[in-house]
Request: fold
Amino acid sequence: MTHRAVPADIAERIYKIVAAIPRGSVSTYGWVAERAGFPRHARLVGHALRVLGSNRKVPWHRVINAQGRISFPRGSAPYTKQRRRLEEEGVRFVRGRIDLKRFGWRLTLDELIWKPDQSG
DNA sequence: GGGTTGACCTGTG
DNA sequence: ACACAGGCCAACC
Reply:
């Protein structure tokens, strides 16, 4: 037994959550972390995706940061790649930003129904 | 084995 | 909109 969690196991759990993000939707690092059972470990998700490699069939491009932006420098190759993949799925960018209210996959149907924001 | 980096988040001002 | 601080932790040197 190891004296701590095996990173590979953590990564697999994260990949599973990412793989569940529907096409045409996006999620954030923080939310994936929480969903994978590691609240406030957003960085862990970033690391897991970084070491993912290009062979895996994990939709890494559907994970963006909490500001609704792609976490690569604008104009860089990976930025362009991720953005093009998202736009191909119908995700729309407004001034380099994605409207998480519209494309964000974070609320379950129950949460939408019970949303305490408005009474309508 | 310690300091820095990074595909991060939230709160505060 | 921007800057800063605290949290969190694997990868890297």
Remarks:
- Residues 113-120 of chain A have pLDDT under 50 and may be disordered.
